Amino acid sequence: MSNNTDTVYLNGKFLPHDQAFVPVMDRGFVFGDGVYEVIPAYGGRLFRLDEHLQRLDASLAGIRLSNPMNHSEWAETLKHLVNENGGGEQSVYLQLTRGHAPRDHGFPQNIQPTVFISSSPLKPVATELLNNGVAAICLEDIRWKHCHIKAIALLPNILLRQQAIDAGAQEAILIRDGLVTEGAASNLFIVKDGVIKTPPKGPFLLPGITRDLLLELAAANGVNYQECNFGAEELQQADEVWLSSSTKEILPVTKLDDKTVGNGQPGPVWQQIYKLYQNYKQALIDGEVE
Ligand code: PDD
């Protein structure tokens, strides 16, 4: 069955997804040697594209892979794909690997990186989750020490997320050396006495694009926030707990392990920031912001 997100981009060509192939010795397949981005599009317009491309540059620098395209080439290619796939609301996935070569850990010389982009329909977050919030569990952060790199090697994240799912929760909230870092595929926020807190950027968490926008909206609207470290106890005593990501936007957590967060309903600060976020999306659709 075909749908309107059938076209992908692979190494310079737009083609139907079932005609896109990568050699089996691609280092993405063999080693997980690559990086990625997930960029939402609303009304066919890419959300915070410059910020995503800057983070891509940082990830590529982190794995010592040079970017085969400049930002305007990326912008043109991504926009073309979104249009090909019918505009509207899409989740665009892009991935670069070091390319294909006989298996050897060291970097091969003179090979071309593999560049792949696909998009899928971006489904709105279920109203039920927004009305009632989601459950999360706390787990030890078993990942490496370069979590600021958006690496395609996601095995720890996958295992942690699945452990949460198996426990009937939506997300795993990760704790490293007693400090909260982020979710398995999201950033984390708490609210205490009206003040938003989120862990500072550094090697132990991904610098989320949604996270940054959320803080920008808080600052512009007089909501206090702090980027500071906190432990599991402060997390458990928070009035509100939220998760943020490009695809899930801002989700309220109302159950943490086996305890209720706050009064068990999405809190007032979440309501306010969530609304500001929706307004920002609308402004993007209306062409009022880039
Ligand atoms: N993941 N932290 C981790 C570990 C993530 O994987 C993600 C997003 C985030 C949030 O970043 P952003 O706001 O830029 O989406 C934080 C994407 C959505 C994914 O892997 O599908």
What is the average of the pLDDT values?
97
Measured as a percent range, the helix fraction is 25-40%
What fold name stands as the CATH topology of the largest domain?
D-amino Acid Aminotransferase, Chain A, domain 2
Number of strands: 15
Fold and architecture overview:
- This protein has 290 residues and is an alpha+beta fold.
- It folds into 2 domains: 7-121, D-amino Acid Aminotransferase, Chain A, domain 1; 127-285, D-amino Acid Aminotransferase, Chain A, domain 2.
- The protein is built from 8 helices and 15 strands.
- A hairpin with a 3-residue loop joins β13 and β14.
- The protein is globular and about 55 Å long.
- The mean pLDDT is 97.
- N-(5'-phosphopyridoxyl)-D-alanine is lined by residues 38, 157, 182, 185-187, 206, 208-211, 244-247.
- Residues 38, 157, 182, 185-187, 206, 208-211, 244-247 line the site of N-(5'-phosphopyridoxyl)-D-alanine (PDD).
Give the key terms.
single chain, 290 residues, alpha+beta, D-amino Acid Aminotransferase, Chain A, domain 1, D-amino Acid Aminotransferase, Chain A, domain 2, 2 domains, 6-stranded antiparallel β-sheet, binds N-(5'-phosphopyridoxyl)-D-alanine
